[in-house]
């Protein structure tokens, strides 16, 4: 059963996870920058923009980039809600833990399974990009579904080995990659503006062009089965600005998590949002022929090569490879922590093995191996598909939207009974943030009614069906009563008891008992 420790309150006690009911098993190694790098590395604008810009150019034209800042505002509001929850329940497993404790363990399990499905799909989607579009362009060879599958399989293996070997080493690699990405993207953006202005190639009127998309009904909501051109442009931000919650998924490994994690998530979204939009403006203003560029397999690299030369174009591809590897590395780590957290509560298939932490390395080796196998199986399912990249990206955009919508809805319903914050609160901005997040997520989910997302919905439903089968097994074997979570500690109540004279027979009041 779950190991509990209900006497621990302070976050710097190395033997416990504060206020969680768990014994501390992971080492607290993440600094402020490491936490920021986790969120930044997962989002990775170099990865997201490079891989989805061409799709948005085809569906929405250059004008579609103006959906980006709206998406950033929407995702920032979601990140703020997640920050408010992370400051109250700073435990590995993020949405799984929050929903399990604030709603009930059954709905928490559902949220955990959706999160697991997302992480399993998105790591394949991200890593497949390296093999399918970038390396063939960088090394000038003919890409096929066969060599794309083989290369992706090797990349996934390397990431799993790093995560399994050492948490500290993984974070060092990620921090270096994030620093390179920050410096590289800022330098590249400035260079594009300067050279574009000097050569006269910078044309801001291109930003307002709709071609190759149709101008009629450009801003319309579309029909029951089709989204409008501008609506589809939101997928650029919806796919890219996701994964900031990875910082919350490593709360038990972060120093002062209740204060560090909310800031790390918000800072990552803001910095990526601003830098990403400036980069999009620079690239789009330098397009010579949008219709012709839309046919390129690597439109971003095509523009940069035309403006800055082949050497800089190749350097960009190397930067994207580094960014994608870092992104996949963070996703793999986040997936292993979620599986480990659910297994610790005996909620995941094979939990007996998956909940173990290697004492010498301080990593969940079995959970890492499991994530590796799952990713390879998902990759195998797409190995013969000629449209694998679009299907993977679409599923990897749909799943987090469901996770975010479910978590925000839970926050709205339970916000009056949340445990006390340990470092971050929305304060008077709570209602405006909730409204923006709700409107944004509702609109984003409506985009997926488009018939082009039929296959991604099918993949999602298959994953849900597998999860539902195991959930039924859990409920039949244990019942709802045996799926309860370890009691949350009410920090305020505990401090009151500590300050007041002890009364015989008085115990720490849990958050559930006091109704917060």
Number of helices: 19
The largest sheet has its strands arranged as: 1-2
Beta strands, count: 2
Q: Please indicate the percent range of residues in DSSP E strands (runs of 2 or more).
A: under 5%
Helix/strand-derived category reads mainly alpha
Question: Tell me, what's the shape?
Answer: globular
- From N to C, what is the helix and strand string? EEHHHHHHHHHHHHHHHHHHH
Residue share in helix: 55-70%
Query: Segments where pLDDT lies below 50 for 5+ residues?
Result: 1-18, 488-516
| Biggest sheet overview | 2 strands, antiparallel
Instruction: Please tell me how large the radius of gyration is.
Output: 23 Å
Distance between the termini: 26 Å
Mean pLDDT equals 84
Word description of this protein:
This protein is mainly α and 516 residues long. 66% of the residues lie in helices and 1% in strands. It contains 19 helices and two strands. Strands 1-2 form a two-stranded antiparallel ribbon. The chain starts with 15 loop residues before the first strand and ends with a helix. Mean pLDDT is 84; it is low at 1-18 and 488-516.
Keywords, please?
516 residues, mainly alpha, disordered N terminus, disordered C terminus
Layout of strands and helices, then pairs:
Elements: E1 16-17, E2 22-23, H1 32-43, H2 45-60, H3 67-86, H4 94-102, H5 105-139, H6 145-165, H7 167-199, H8 229-240, H9 257-285, H10 290-293, H11 299-308, H12 310-344, H13 351-354, H14 365-381, H15 388-414, H16 430-447, H17 454-478, H18 491-499, H19 511-514
Antiparallel strand pairs: 1-2
Helix pairs in contact: 1-7, 1-9, 1-12, 2-8, 2-12, 3-8, 3-9, 3-15, 3-16, 4-5, 4-15, 5-6, 5-12, 5-14, 5-15, 5-17, 6-12, 6-14, 7-9, 7-12, 11-12, 12-14, 15-16, 15-17
């Amino acid at each position: 059963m779950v190991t509990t420790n209900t006497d621990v309150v302070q976050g710097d006690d190395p033997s416990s996870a504060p206020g969680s009911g768990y014994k501390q098993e992971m080492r607290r190694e993440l600094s402020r920058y490491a936490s920021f790098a986790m969120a930044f590395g997962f989002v990775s604008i170099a990865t997201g923009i490079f891989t989805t810009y061409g799709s948005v150019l085809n569906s929405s034209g250059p004008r579609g980039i103006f959906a980006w800042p709206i998406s950033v505002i929407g995702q920032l509001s979601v990140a703020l809600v997640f920050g408010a929850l992370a400051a109250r329940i700073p435990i590995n497993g993020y949405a799984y833990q929050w929903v399990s404790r604030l709603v009930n363990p059954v709905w928490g399990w559902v949220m955990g399974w959706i999160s697991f499905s997302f992480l399993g799909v998105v790591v394949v989607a991200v890593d497949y990009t390296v093999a399918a579009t970038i390396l063939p362009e960088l090394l000038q060879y003919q890409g096929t579904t066969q060599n794309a599958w083989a290369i992706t399989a090797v990349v996934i293996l390397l990431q799993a080995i790093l995560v399994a070997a050492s948490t500290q080493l993984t974070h060092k690699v990620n921090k270096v990659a994030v620093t390179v990405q920050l410096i590289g993207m800022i330098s590249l953006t400035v260079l594009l503006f300067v050279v574009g202005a000097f050569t006269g190639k910078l044309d801001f009127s291109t930003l307002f062009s709709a071609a190759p998309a149709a101008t009629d009904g450009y801003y319309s909501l579309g029909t029951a089965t089709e989204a409008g051109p501008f609506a589809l442009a939101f997928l650029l931000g919806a796919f890219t600005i996701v994964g900031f919650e990875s910082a919350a998924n490593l709360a038990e490994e972060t120093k002062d998590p209740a204060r560090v994690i909310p800031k790390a998530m918000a800072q990552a979204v803001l910095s990526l949002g601003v830098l990403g939009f400036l980069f999009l403006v620079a690239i789009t203003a330098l397009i010579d022929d949008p219709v012709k560029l839309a046919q390129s397999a690597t439109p971003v690299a095509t523009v940069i090569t035309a403006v800055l030369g082949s050497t800089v174009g190749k350097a960009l591809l190397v930067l994207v490879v580094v960014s994608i590897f870092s992104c996949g590395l963070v996703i793999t780590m986040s997936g292993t922590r979620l599986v480990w957290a659910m297994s610790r509560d005996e909620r995941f298939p094979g939990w007996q093995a998956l909940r173990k932490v290697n004492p010498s390395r301080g990593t969940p080796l079995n959970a890492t191996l499991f994530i590796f196998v799952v990713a390879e199986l998902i990759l195998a399912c797409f190995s013969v598909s000629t449209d694998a990249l679009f299907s993977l990206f679409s599923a990897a955009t749909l799943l987090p939207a469901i996770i975010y919508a479910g978590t925000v809805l839970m926050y709205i319903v339970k916000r009056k009974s949340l445990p006390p914050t340990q470092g971050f609160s929305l304060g008077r901005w709570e209602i405006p943030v909730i409204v923006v997040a709700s409107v944004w997520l509702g609109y984003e989910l409506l985009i997926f009614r488009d018939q082009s997302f039929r296959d991604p919905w099918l993949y999602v439903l298959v994953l849900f069906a597998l999860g539902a089968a195991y959930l039924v097994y859990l409920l039949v074997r244990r019942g709802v009563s045996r799926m309860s979570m370890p009691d949350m500690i009410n920090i305020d109540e505990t401090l009151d008891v500590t300050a007041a004279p002890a009364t015989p027979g008085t115990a720490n009041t849990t958050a559930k008992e006091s109704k917060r």
